[in-house]
Every structure is written in structure tokens, then in C-alpha cells.
What we know:
Elements: H1 5-26, H2 30-34, H3 36-39, H4 42-72, H5 78-86, H6 93-103, H7 110-114, H8 128-153, H9 157-165, H10 170-181, H11 183-198, H12 202-207, H13 219-229, H14 233-259, H15 275-304, H16 326-334, H17 336-366, H18 370-381, H19 388-397, H20 404-410, H21 412-428, H22 433-440, H23 446-454, H24 456-472, H25 475-480, H26 497-503, H27 512-538, H28 541-544
Family: Belongs to the binding-protein-dependent transport system permease family. MalFG subfamily.
Protein name: ABC-type sugar transport system, permease component
Subcellular location: Cell membrane
Amino acid sequence: MRYPIPYLIYIFAFGIIPFFGAFLILGVNISSAFSVFKFVPVGLVVENTLIFSFFTAALSSVLGTLLAVAVEILPKGKRLASLLVMLPYTIPFTSSALIWTISLYGKYGWFSYLFHLPFDPLYLAKTSIWAVTGVSVWSSVPVSFLIMISSLRSVPKEVREASVMDGLSLSQYYSSVAVPMVGKAFWISFLLQFVLAMGNFDLPYVLTQGGPGFSSTTLPLLVFDEMFTFGNFSGGELVAALLGLMATLPSLALIFLFRSRRRKYLPSLNLKLSDRVFKGIMMALMGLLLFTLDFPVYWMVLVAFREPILDFKYPPVLFPTHLTSSYFISSLEQSVPYMITSVVVGLTASLFTVLMSLPASYEAARKGMGWLLFLSIYLYSLPAASFVIPLYLLFTGIGLINTWWALILSTPIFTATFATWIFYNFYMDFPRGYDDAAQVFGIKRKLFRIIMPLSRGSIFSVFLLSFVFNWHLLFYPLIFANTPYNMRFPPEGALTITIFALQALGNESLNWGLLASSALVASLPVMVITMMAVDRILRGERGSGVKFI
């Protein structure tokens, strides 16, 4: 059991110990910890968190499944349609929030205009949490789609051929055979989205900062406010502990699904429509959803490159005119220090992720160490707020606050645990003949000489997905850094590109060109990289090495 040792040391040092250490810190000042209940409607915050998490998970899983079926029945253009579905995934949460800030802005935003909203739902107490949830669904649908399309492609061709022989229509095949067969993937998507949304700090923080009042405050946002706005570390830790406990149940359910050999967790529905009608309905639905998914990205690019005099026109100007590159160039120049930090942190943390998780996953898959996978899944599903206080105190004590190392060391607790899930599933089907050949011919260091070269597709995809995750980070950079990179050596300052985009959102004036260009600058590099990774995954599981079930 030598290969998993570095990985185990890391997850204990930066995951398990901080998680339980948080409870020890809580005991330092009980009265201060429980004072949060006197000044904050914690019941409302918990309700907001559950609304945000449940509806994000439910709607994104259902819509992702419908889009996966629609893409599957396309005669041509499956990869293009898939990439269009995945486009919102390429946008960091901070940039997504900035896009929707100007999309929902009263009667001047494109969404408010096209869907006849007479008010901005982000600024009303009754609608703010639902508006934030809607943006979360928009960001989450692509991941659910990716899980479901990969799973539908794993249905044996013989099943489809048998359904044709039995005279089943397309609607009957998908409703009573294919989708129920991948029911396990659907619930994995639901639970994964649920626990990730439960820990999502970025969207509520950027869109509303929890307001008006506490109407859209969620538990991760409350943790941040208690610790870094009010200086109540014990209160913040109490809320973080509550959040960790709430995430435990869905995390255990997710682990149960991985352990289960059963796949059919959805009922069969005998939806009997003619193929022509079914295809027409699915194509119309896909067209509407693709418009909703992709038009905000177009809006971001359009607003970033046009004159500001067009921002507050009614009806909104939806086509390119009066174009200028001044805002984009200015944002690009100002973003350089932040961009350098994101690149360095993303590349280094992703390299650590692969080097730690691949050997551990390989030996775990070979020796049946399923507990390592389950431990990884649980840690991955815990919110970042569950670890942050002990890590903050640790980095403060050893002088790593506002350095690249604080981010490089802390973020793999999410990327390495996710990578272990992917690598484990990959090596479960990896031919054992390679191990036997290495033993027969006495090949030493087989992991590096044989296994890793044969795992290039999996390594490439995991590395890119890890880089994308690190690029999207907001919570940890907001806490562990306070200035941009100083452009000197030794390096100092660790604010990332997501913080740069966030700074464009001023309190006194709303400059759409600045917002959109900052969002675009933060998104553009990772959009290209993400599309490369997603395209590789969509070619098929064998080429990409990515399996979700």
C-alpha cells in the first residue's frame, strides 16, 4: 500500500484534520459561537440553502437528461450540439454572476425584456433566492448533461437493436428502456449537484451578497460574513459545522449509489409517441434550452465590445453596432497580475492533483480498496467552508497568507478527490494483463513506465478539468489573499482572475462594458481549455478515460 500514502497524508492534513479541527475550534468560545442565532435568522438561511440546493439539483438533472436524449437522437451534429450545451460550464461562477447582473437589470437586460419581467428579481426579497437559484441551474445543467450523455452512450447497442426488433418507438425506448437503465447516473447527478450547490459561495455572494436583508443568504455566505465581516470566528465555525452536517446525508447517499451494482433507479414510463412527433418536441425543447444557455455568453461578448451609450436603451439593442475594443483591452492589461496567479496556481495544483490521485486510484482499484473512493467522495462533497477556518489559522501562523502556496496547497482537497473518483472508475476496467506482463518480464516502476503512458487520455482530461476548477475558484482566494501578484521575485500577492472580475462590480455605478469585459477576460482562457477537455470527453469514454459510473 505504498502508492496511496502521499494522497492519504494530503487528505488527512488538508481535509480530515481541518474538518474535525473546526469542531475543536468551535469549543473555544461557546457564547460567541451561539450569538449568531441572536442576530441572524438562521432558520431562513437554512431554508434558502435547501431551496438553492434542491432546485439547482432537480432542475439541472432533469434538463441535463432531456438535453442528453435530444442530442442522442440527432442524426448529425451531435458534438457541436454537445459543445453548445457545455458552453456555460466554461464560464467561472464570478463571470456568470456578472453576466446575469446585466441580463436581469430591470427593463434593459435582455432576459427581462424577452421574458417581460417588469422588475429586477435580484433586488426583491420575495424573488432574490429564486433568481440566484435560476443562475445556478444555468451554470449546472452542462455537468448533468455530461454525466447523462456519457451514461446513455454506455447503453449496449444490443439493447437498442432489441427495442427496434420489438417495435418500440423512440419515445418508448428512451422512456421505458434507456433512461431507466441509466437511472443511477441521474441520481448521482442529482446528489452531486445538491452537495455542490449546498457549498456554493460564489453565486449568492456576487449576485446579491445575501440581500435584500437575509432573503438570499445561504450558509456558506453566512460563514464568510461571520468570520470576515463581523470577526466572529466561533460563530462562523458553528455555521460551517452545521453546513458540514447537512452535507453528510446526501454525501452518504452518493456513496451508497457508487457502491450499488444496480443501475435502474428510475421507473419505466411507456411514453408512446410517433418518432416524428417525439423528434419535433425534443428538437424544439433543445432549441429553447440552447438559446437560454448560450445567449448570455453572446450578451457578455456583445456588451464587452460596444459603446456604453447602448447599455440603457429600451428595447435593448441585441445586435452588434457601435463596436469598440477599449474596455476589453483595458481589462486585459489590468488583469495581467491576476491572470499570472491563476495560471501558476491552476497548473501547479493540477499537477499535484494528478501525481497524488493517479497512483492512489490505481492501487485502490487493483486491491479493492473501495473505502478510499468513498472517503474521497465524502471529502469532495463537503463545502469549502467546512475546512476554511483551521486552514486560515494554519496559513496565518506559518506566513503563507497572500501567497501562491496557500492556494496551491488548499485547493487539491477538491480536485484530487474528484480525480480519484475518475481515475478509480478508469482503472476498474483497465486490463490486468499489463500488470501480469510487468511481473513476468520483471519490469520495475511499472506505474511510470507502463500504466501512466497507457493512461494519457485519462491524465489529460483530469488535468484540464482540475485546471478549470482552480480557475473558477473564488472562496479560497477571497480569504487567503488580499493583493495581486507584485510582478517581482520572490512573489507576493495571490488574488486570482475571479477576484479581478469581481472588482468590476462597483457599488456606486454600473458600467456594463467594464463588467462584461472583465467577465470575458476571466472566462476566455478557460473557455478554450474547457472546450478542449469537453470535446475529448464527448468523443467517448475510451478516448477520454473519463467514466462517471
